[in-house]
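Students often ask why we bother predicting the structure of a whole assembly rather than each chain alone. The short answer is interfaces. A chain on its own may look different once its partners are present, and contacts between molecules only exist in the joint model. In this exercise we take two input lines together and write out one structure for the complete complex. Read the inputs first and try to guess which parts will touch.
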Amino acid sequence: MRRYIARQLVQLVVVILGISVLAFVILHVLGDPVLLLLPQNAGKEEFERYRHLLGLDRPLYVQYWKFLSGAVVGDFGKSWYADTPAFKLVLERMPPTIYLTFAGLLVALLISLPLGILAALKRHTWLDNLCTAVAVAGQAMPLFWLGIMLIIVFAVRLKVLPASGYGTWQNFLLPSFCLGAALAPITMRLVRSGVIEVMNMEFIKTARAKGLSEPFVVVKHAFRNACIPVITVLGLQFGQLLGGAIITETVFAWPGVATLTVESIRNQDFPVVQCAVILLALVIVAVNLVVDLAVGFIDPRIRAGA
Amino acid sequence: MKAASAPTKLALADLEDVPIQTPSAGQAALRRLLRLRWGLAAGGILLLIVACSVLAPWISPHDPLAVNIRHRLAPPAWMEGGTTQHLLGTDPVGRDLLSRMIYGGRVSLVIGVAAVILSATIGVLLGLGAGYVGGATDWTIMTIINVMLTFPFVLLALAVIAVLGPSLVNMIIVLGVAGWPIYARVVRAEAMALREREFVLAGRALGMSHVRIVFRQILPNLVSAIVVIATLQVAQVIILESFLSFLGLGIQPPTPAWGNMLGEGRVYMLNSWWIAAFPGLAIFVTTLAINLMGNALRDWLDPHMKL
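Now the answer. The structure tokens for the assembled complex follow.
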């Protein structure tokens, strides 16, 4: 187990370094910060002065080192727009994003677990086919369109739920349903195939032969074992989930990191964009690590094989 | 993960519960044919959408950019106040929604196909390199893949577009470069397995060069997997492209694109739902058709493919 953790940690550090390079490259190699900062009619000397001031005339690896050593202690520079540290701005917006992500995950599980198990138990019946059809349609649904349709139906027409805003539980309903509905199809298919696979295994027959009731067999024996692949894939999907949260936030004007990022992109406020990108990536990496360790802990075969 | 959880089964007593891997041949063929029919129907719809986009100048009832203030915010023809002149209604400046939707498909399809070709090319080359060469090359490429897959695709595209500025070519480049890891991962795994097979070893023994082996012996075995992934990826790219346009960071108005129409319609959703609803429906139908076709293609090319 210790070697497994060590290997995971090394990979983690490499991935984080890679992400920092990516975030650095996006701003410093693809774009010229000075060009974005100064007005178009600024003189040549002015450009040079600012370049020197920001250290942009030094070699790239020196700049990267400066960026990285700052980032490690949470110093991503000041926002060009709001004159507060970028790190503080992003950190303030983190909780709503995390709440939304978990609410979405919860909704996805509430939809996909019962339907997935049902589809697996009633395999090749109309019920199974219906679930699969809904899942296929759900996977093709653009998240932002679903969000807007939800707003039109529930907020504009029926006037039962708020279209945007943050704070009360009603505010959570539409966005978390939107996000959950996006994640549910793939989860449902995983649960279905997981349960089908497990239901064919020897210990299920043993459990039935012992005379246990069918619901008990399904919940206690089959479902538990079907959970392992589901947890793994959900962990890997966490990046996608957060990506979905980004889209959902922009549709419902949710005051999270994603709205901040989009605002900052519009304002060309790159320290904030960089900081948000790196912090979100860190969250994803951390979740992946926890999932890997949890699965390795539950299932010894994986830690030996990986 | 798959290998670790493969069940050891002796399902003699309980034939009904024999897993799906071994249904009777006739049943399997029937199921495949059924799914293929879905695929054909989806392909037909897709062909229709492509034809509409290509023939847009001839079939669209109005000029997609023609402003007509007097007819602004007209509802669809079947609603009260709608006219048959504008079947799907008009937008806030009186442009015909149907015509804009027909033209809007062009952008999405061009970006979808071009970006997928770009990312498939990069992904296949790097995947072949990683899988065939192995060692440090493999490690480096796998690390890059892990970094890219950790990163939410949306965020990456947003950040890069913000720096490069929105334009058709930039969108193709960004979506193309962001999408390659999926191909690379599958190609790498397959190339690694194929590298040890007899026909490759035989090729080596006959004195074939590595390049020749990779492109003439390994790559042809991967074509069906690549085609299936590429088909499914077109849908993903279209969704992402429309999202960027929806945020105003993609295709810029007045050029009609499903995404930016949806973005414009969002402002008016209080009274004029159709402006946002129809472009979104177009995206949905297109991606659904592509997904169904991709699934059917997979069944047809190789039912055992795990993607």
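Check your guess against this: Residues 86-121 of chain A form the longest helix (36 residues).
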